[in-house]
Amino acid sequence: MTSNMRKSAVALATVAVAFLAACQAGSSSGNGTASPGTADASLAVGLTAEPASLDFTKNDGAAIPQALLYNVNETLVKVDQSGRVVPALAKSWDVSSDRTTYTFHLVQGAKFSDGKPFTADDAKFSIERVKSDWTISLKSAMDTVDTVSVTNPTTLVVKLRHPSNDWLYRMTTRIGAMFSRTGVGNLATKPIGTGPYLFSKWVRGDSITLTRNDRYWGHEPYFKTIALKYFKDPTAENNALLSGTIDVNGAVQSPDSLGQFENNPKYQVIEGTTNGEVVLSFNNGSGPLKNRKLRQAVKYGIDHKALLDTCWAGKGKLIGGMVPPTDPWYEDLTGLYPHDPAKARQLLKESGEAGRTLRLRLPTLPYATACGQVVKSQLDQLGFKVKIDQLEFPAAWLSTVFTNADYDMSIVAHVEPRDMPAVFGDPKYYTRYGKPALRTLLQKADEGTPDQQVTYMKQAARMLAEDAAADWLFVLPNLIVADKDVTGLPKNAISESFDLTQLGRR
Length: 506
Known about the structure:
With 506 residues, the protein is of the alpha+beta class. Helix content is 25%, strand content 22%.
């Protein structure tokens, strides 16, 4: 698989549990953003995965848009806490009756951090650049665009090849980021955007510091500076909060640790949901799990409730399919493969694969390591032979599992929004699925009416679940611990961005 085929859906798992979303401000101005604080107000946020680069046009990984999207690099539209598409650099937009032409009316007065004004020409450049210069396969969401034209400096017209329910939503993600025509030469270390924050400093292995943009076109955020500090060790991150080194633990890596904060009046604990499905991935293209009966045997053999209780302290939600509860086409599919040890043993025997060793290749991420041990234990008790290999994340896991599909099973959180088409629609993706019948349903969902989208996406999710294309262990919870006076923290995490503009203090 070439680098162009890499879908960000998997690489987004670098965020692990701490994928923070756009959120509503506790101390806010009229448009819902936090009011500016004192001149030197600062905040430190603890997170899990540090970016390898700051250029999300060429590098996978959720850590990059988590830090930069909406904060440094703005989009024409964004998603709010309820999942609605709302204005950003486009103050409004019109859609033609045939649903193929979008006319965006842009804000006036926005400037990039290099001083250049933001105009419709920059928006045209940014959209066309996704198709010409981006190297991650997330860019394929822009393939539906036919032409982009500029009517005047504040009016942009985008013509699609066909109606697409998905396209406008994708414009809220990183592929919708707006770039300066003269500011893309060094995105890996010097991101330039129109956002409320400026990239200030990156101490590799430690932190990224963002500084409030005093020339920002919109409402100023509360904090003057925000440091995003990265912790690989959950105990170290908890201790940093307890000692006051950080103000927010946005990356609770061990739910068992919440007890020390829940009854302490100095802190607040937030528990909500995300759109991150923790998937026990199967290699559908080669090896023993190409056998459907064996895949079904594995699914019947796992006690999902016991697994969630054991490896993630019961936090999260069982789903049974590749759709989180926050999506409009969610359906509880946990009843399709209830825990049934006898049926698991029977299907294992019927598969003809009994005795073969299944390679469970795990990334070195807390939830994957903890849940992988439970999967192995449960399956071993039923007569399966499971061998765990720990692969350093991201490099070794991306190379071995994601790129080369050299695995039988893996565990990873797919946290990109509405990622079923990306994960299972492409036969070259690491799951090696992409069956024509599924692709047909996904196309009908995208090109049909909004009601048809819901119908066909439900059918697609059920098809995947019935075919045992993977085993969906649970949806990650959104677990955050913070100082009591920090406001604007999200209940649910449903976008690629940790929207820093929403945070404030009482």
